[in-house]
């Protein structure tokens, strides 16, 4: 494969090697371990000094709104992982004050920012804090429309909705006002508002937009902003170099595996697949884990292609039975291409299980076998529907698609990679497909339905909730069906928020973040433009090399 020192043409080929593809995807180390010191001693010395400056500033202003503004900036710049203890302490202090005075004082911006940060970090904060901005008719005061800063922050806060009517109103009110502002403002303001509308903080992977925030929100020369800018710049250089090293290793592994040469009909997009782990396990310390996670993700894509594009129904039945047996001595009945895929899956899964056992002392092989079996069963169900030209009921289709989307399989791997809170009870709960894995899968499946690109290799039924829904409701127009799907996506986000932000929490904060980031990646992976291009994904891949 061409060197990863990388031209735009190579990046584009990695996303669309054979045209457009609109398919589903179907012990704690020291943080410096992931940051290779060979990137330059001077860079690390400067970074260490900036770390100390920002830490001191957080401590100095811990009880002021300025500290919350700094925390917000740290998160937007994706450097908050350096200051976990300080951020937890400051937010805890603000929450205790919130409970003591029964609310949040300040402007619309102040209240929205504090509400968002506290809820993001799992504190129980009622959206009733916004009632003072609502009139007797239950609507937000029209006089707030001129407060652009407050409108932007209210819009951001509204996305942390767990099913609350006032946050629905906040989203409608701020969104409508911002869209109007964008149309009647100078270019700089219009661009700022446009970016906020297209990429709300809660619905976006922070690291994918940290460069934008750094470039478009430069400080005013103050000590705080200068330290943040310098820290973010040096951190961005180090992390970019780390990701380039990881991608080179992933590319070597994929080439050596040989599946791309054997399965010519399947996708050959290792860099695109690597984008999922880069988002879902974003902290630099998880370098080895990102590489390990890319391997089962690659297999999900390849197996999806075998079921959707190439395998006959009889072969797919044999393939699924072989996976359930999990016995490498019984695969003689499979065709050669399936044998190679089976061997790769068998070996990679066992290697992964050994890796987890060494890291955390837990053998996940039974959980992984069951998860692969479930995924194959879901793929096979869709293959049977396609072979018989049967279009199932919408809910029947979606229940199966939550599995065939592949995200649950990925989250099983992430859970064991993180190694936080592994018990028989937590494993059983995870295997029951809780909201924290099923909601992102629902979002993925439904976003895929809304995509503009069509699969060039398939004809007929290739899996669409929208198609099933419209068949059940023949009087509905396509536009009405799409609106219904968008409402379902919104509801899935609310369910996911509820699972991640409400108490008690069955999973660790890092696992919750990986779940959220998986859902956030969906739009980047499936939001095709009119030319069947994934512009956001292309931009993110290109940013890794410039």
Automatic annotation (TrEMBL):
Domain spans labelled Terpene synthase metal-binding: 255-494
Cross-referenced Pfam families: Terpene_synth, Terpene_synth_C
Keywords per UniProt: Lyase, Magnesium, Metal-binding
GO term, biological process aspect, one: diterpenoid biosynthetic process
UniProt entry tagged with the keyword Cytoplasm: no
Entry cofactors: Mg(2+)
Domain Terpene synthase N-terminal: start-end pairs: 45-197
UniProt xrefs under InterPro entries: Isoprenoid_synthase_dom_sf (IPR008949), Terpene_cyclase-like_1_C (IPR034741), Terpene_cyclase_plant_C1 (IPR044814), Terpene_synth_N (IPR001906), Terpene_synth_N_sf (IPR036965), Terpene_synthase-like (IPR050148), Terpene_synthase_metal-bd (IPR005630), Terpenoid_cyclase/PrenylTrfase (IPR008930)
Superkingdom to which the source organism belongs: Eukaryota
Molecular function per GO: magnesium ion binding; terpene synthase activity
PANTHER family the record matches: OS04G0344100 PROTEIN-RELATED, S-(+)-LINALOOL SYNTHASE, CHLOROPLASTIC
Name of the protein in its database record: Uncharacterized protein
């Amino acid at each position: 494969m061409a060197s990863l020192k990388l031209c735009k043409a190579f990046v584009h080929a990695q996303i669309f090697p054979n045209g457009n593809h609109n398919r589903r995807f179907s012990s704690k180390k020291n943080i410096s371990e992931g940051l290779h010191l060979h990137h330059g001693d001077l860079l690390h010395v400067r970074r260490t000094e900036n770390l100390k400056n920002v830490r001191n500033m957080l401590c100095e202003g811990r009880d002021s709104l300025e500290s919350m503004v700094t925390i917000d900036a740290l998160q937007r710049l994706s450097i908050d992982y350096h200051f976990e203890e300080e951020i937890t302490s400051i937010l805890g202090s603000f929450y205790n004050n919130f409970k003591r005075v029964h609310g949040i004082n300040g402007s619309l911006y102040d209240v929205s920012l504090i509400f968002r940060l506290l809820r993001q970090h799992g504190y129980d904060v009622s959206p009733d804090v916004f009632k003072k901005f609502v009139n007797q008719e239950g609507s937000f005061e029209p006089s707030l429309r001129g407060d652009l800063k407050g409108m932007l922050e209210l819009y951001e806060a509204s996305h942390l909705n767990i099913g609350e009517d006032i946050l629905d109103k906040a989203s409608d009110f701020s969104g409508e006002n911002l869209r109007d502002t964008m149309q009647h403002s100078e270019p700089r303001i219009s661009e700022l508002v446009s970016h906020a509308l297209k990429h709300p903080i809660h619905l976006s992977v922070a690291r994918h937009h940290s460069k934008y925030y750094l470039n478009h929100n430069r400080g005013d020369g103050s000590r705080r902003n200068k330290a943040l800018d310098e820290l973010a710049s040096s951190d961005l250089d180090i992390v970019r170099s780390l990701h380039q090293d990881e991608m080179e290793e992933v590319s070597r592994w994929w080439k050596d595996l040989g599946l791309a040469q054997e399965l010519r009909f399947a996708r050959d997009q290792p860099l695109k697949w690597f984008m999922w782990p880069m988002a879902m396990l974003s902290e630099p310390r998880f370098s080895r884990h990102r590489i390990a996670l890319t391997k089962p993700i690659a297999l999900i894509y390849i197996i999806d292609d075998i079921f959707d594009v190439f395998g006959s129904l009889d072969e797919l039945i044999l393939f699924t039975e072989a996976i359930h047996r999990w016995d490498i001595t019984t695969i003689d009945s499979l065709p050669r291409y399936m044998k190679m895929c089976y061997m790769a899956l068998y070996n990679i899964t066992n290697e992964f299980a050994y890796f987890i056992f060494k890291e955390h002392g837990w053998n996940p092989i039974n959980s992984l076998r069951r998860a692969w079996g479930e995924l194959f069963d879901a793929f096979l169900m869709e293959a049977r529907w396609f072979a018989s030209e049967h279009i199932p009921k919408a809910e029947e289709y979606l229940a199966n698609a939550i599995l065939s989307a592949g995200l649950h399989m990925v989250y099983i791997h992430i859970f064991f990679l993180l190694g936080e809170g592994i018990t028989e009870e937590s494993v059983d709960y995870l295997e029951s497909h809780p909201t924290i894995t099923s909601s992102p899968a629902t979002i993925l499946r439904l976003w895929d339905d809304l995509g503009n690109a069509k699969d060039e290799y398939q004809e007929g039924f290739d899996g669409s909730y929208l198609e099933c829904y419209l068949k059940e409701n023949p009087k509905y127009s396509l536009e009405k069906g799409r609106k219904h799907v968008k409402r379902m996506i919104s509801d899935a986000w609310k369910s996911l928020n509820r699972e991640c932000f409400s108490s008690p929490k069955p999973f660790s904060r890092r696992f919750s973040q990986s779940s959220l980031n998986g859902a956030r990646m969906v739009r980047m992976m499936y939001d095709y433009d009119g030319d069947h291009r994934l512009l956001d994904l292309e931009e993110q891949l290109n940013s890794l090399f410039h």
